[in-house]
């Protein structure tokens, strides 16, 4: 991946992470519902907004790290982002197995993990 391709990728992914994190920070119940959390849980769980906001803060921080990381140091940033994405997917798949989230959450988590993995592999082949 050339430096120009890396700049485009990190700008896109970093910006998207910041936008999604910001939306989740200010509308945690809506984001949870949109991602497939049961409507009764999205409305009634008092801990849900805090947990979603914690994830949002992490998303914003990782997005900012991607935007600020120059190409030579990006390897570590992509490894950390991939690890966090895998942990998120595992949490969603566990919740899906217990019936706490919709199928679309498990599918979306799988897609995000696959895209993040493909990006990390592509970056590491440089």
UniProtKB/TrEMBL annotation:
Q: Where are the transmembrane segments?
A: 12-31
Top-rank taxon:
Bacteria
Is Membrane included in the keywords of this UniProt record?
yes
* One Pfam family linked to the record: DUF4267
Keyword tags: Membrane, Transmembrane, Transmembrane helix
Name-wise, this protein is: DUF4267 domain-containing protein
Q: Which organism is it from?
A: Geodermatophilus maliterrae
